[in-house]
Amino acid sequence: MFVRRPRPGGSVRPYILLIERGQEPFEGSWALPGGFVDYGEDPDLAVIREVAEETGLDGLPFRQFRTYGRPDRDPRGHTVSIVYVAELVGELPTVEGGDDAAKAAWFAIDELPMLAFDHDRILGTLISVLGLR
Amino acid sequence: MFVRRPRPGGSVRPYILLIERGQEPFEGSWALPGGFVDYGEDPDLAVIREVAEETGLDGLPFRQFRTYGRPDRDPRGHTVSIVYVAELVGELPTVEGGDDAAKAAWFAIDELPMLAFDHDRILGTLISVLGLR
Asked: How far is B73 from chain A (nearest CA, A)?
């Protein structure tokens, strides 16, 4: 999830929504919000549910980006993640960590922390493909 | 997998690679080639393996298209499919059904049969997004 936030003079500065993990693995690390799809749940709805649980933001306009499935990307076992992106324009919505997320916060795209799992790689690809930097 | 096959006069006619299913569900129906990712297998490699097993074509230049995960799309249970596309230009390579596929064959895009599962929907979206018709 990211927001293009207007700056004085007409340019924009993109912000990315991250969560601080409240559980192992990578407890205390920042990561992209997300979680596991329930059996029988449409992944297009699971992303909305998970982001709402972890950040308080509901009903975001997600679209699929790419699917990541390399077997070494999660120490818990082989995990396939469908990455979605939602783009907003304007001021940053208030967020609040919940469920597995100890915190939720916006980070300017040029001030990102190190991320858990392969999320640095995912976000790098996303930033490049969307031309955010 | 599809091929843009040149026609006299310089235009092209796109062909899609399909298999006839040799097992239930949808035994005897045509479908997109594919199968299940093994645990510990990169999906980007699984697609190459499955298409080689079912059609005899190996090492195709696949890229991800979209991921489909609606819970009602496979009667065997909730199944998430990562759809890949590979595009060739020229004459149609020889194909041969194998493994779960009773047959493999090329179909001109304007002469497609009804497909199993939600593959009509997937292929319709693909044809539209890639501007093949």
From this structure: 10
Q: Which residues lie below 8 Å from residue A93, measured CB to CB, with a gap of 6+? A: A3, A57
Q: What is the DSSP letter of A115?
A: B
Q: Do B16 and B112 meet the contact criterion of CB atoms below 8 Å apart?
A: yes
Q: Does the reported pTM lie above 0.80?
A: yes
CB of A39 less than 8 A from some CB of B: yes
Query: Do B69 and A40 lie within an 8 Å CB cutoff?
Result: no
* Closest CB to A67 among B64, B70, B78: B64
pLDDT, average across residues A2-9: 76
ipTM: 0.85
Q: Please return the burial class of A79, using the count of CB atoms within 10 Å of its CB with bins 0-12, 13-18 and 19+.
A: middle
Is the CB of residue A60 less than 8 Å from the CB of residue A102?
no
Chain B CB within 8 Å of residue A43 CB? yes
